[in-house]
Queue: 3 jobs
Job 1
Amino acid sequence: MSEIPGNNDDLLALTKDISMRDFHQPFLHNCRYNSRLRSVGGRYLLTTHDIEINLRYALRVGVDGLIDTIKHELCHYHLHLAGRGYRHRDKDFQWLLQRVNGIRYADREALPPRCYRYEYKCQSCGAKYLRKNRIDLKKFVCGKCRGKLRLVADSGPQS
């Protein structure tokens, strides 16, 4: 397969294939693209046992990156259903991920950059804070030294 699956049915078929080939267990739930995911390559939903994949991320990393992301989410899936440690910090998860040659984290370069509109700087220690939304400078102080914050850059909406 040289290009990423174009629809959810093809993605589900690829996920089932990877599950049987690398985990020797069937994948019995749903796998789909979720265009609303922003900061992750994919996610495993604990309540429904479904897997969601970030479509924009998959387009940027290609088939190999998509397969690695699916392996990562399948590690969560199979360990959770088996009642073993399925979280990133658990030894069971780390061992299984290494065994199937999955990736630990999504490639940050392939994820869309976060856009910050406001930059604040502490007047005492010089620490910088990037924020998407404005903050009330009367209520918030520096988290390191408790000094006053000052708005340095404002690239917010122009009226």
Job 2
Amino acid sequence: MSRHILFDLDGTLIDSSRSILAGFEAALAANGATPKVPVDSRLIGPPLPEALRILSGEEDPARIALIARAFADYYDTEGYKASDAYAGVTDMLAALHAAGSVLHIATNKRYRPTERIVKWLGWDRWFSQVYAIDKLPEARFVSKAAMIEHLMRHAQVPREQAVYVGDRDEDRVAATANALPFVLVSWGYGEYADLSAYDQVAATPLALGRLLMGPGASALT
């Protein structure tokens, strides 16, 4: 069993599409902007400024910052509460924690809503480290790979005892950059032409839990 399990959040543990997409639309409307691409789940996953740049068509950092502030005003107060845990995820996390795994989150989401979502869902008692793109007060992480590297160094996570779990190929890239094995969950926001390209794939949270716990995973039924 992998002792340290690092999870992506959106599309892996939670379906936050309702709240995020509503927040995008509210933020654009508040700034007199209109969507330049469909407001759909393909916008969920990248860091917020990048998603807003794609959505709004804006290139001016000041304009993107204004839209991002409007998004945060909505999402950080009430919007985050519409985040839904995928069926079976809570039981999986509880079983992994009870079996002795140390659980972490490494997400491109901002830290404030991430922390609130984890607490709202009652998961804060299970996660040792919660890392987000703006976790460090002095600077944003330049990539998810850099975030994972910092988390592992700060929490003294041995690479040979860790695995990263996510729903997009960018998660695989981040794991590979840190010499970590990667498990793809196929229920998230990623779109895949060929799942056989991935070494480890889980189709349900139950299957993921059994894979992470290894043979004899009787705690998951």
Job 3
Amino acid sequence: MTTTSRTSRVVVAGIGSEYRLDDGVGPLVAALAEAQSGTALDVGPLSEPLDLLGHWNDVELVVVIDAVRSGAPAGTVCVVEISVDESDHVVNVESDALASVTTSTHGIGFEGALRLARAIGQAPKRLVVVGVEGERFGVGEGLSSAVEAAVPEALRRVLSLIEEL
């Protein structure tokens, strides 16, 4: 189950599958953010960045929560802001901890989805990925202990981004 929360200015999307172990962290944190922020819009399952097309058109802020693989210790939370410049080059505007993490465990990364959205005139103004370093991505349910311990920090980061607006 993947949840997307939306106000007129913010979309919060959890990407992943609760049936692929740590890949379920995105939907879990998105659901928690939805409950704590009091906004809701269920758009159905989002399993990869391309699924965001149509849900983020002209939105001021899109916050995506997703499991990542970068080689950092499991449970590490990173925040990466992704932007595309006038020449259609991806620019990391702001990042911490894992500056190189701008893709997910899915086929096409967030940069590709953002480039496509921009090309068709449906890009959000700002895209921020809150990544949680995963450990296990096999078939099954439940998060590893390191990823489960990172959920409060990921949630805090998501709520902080929403409150900035």
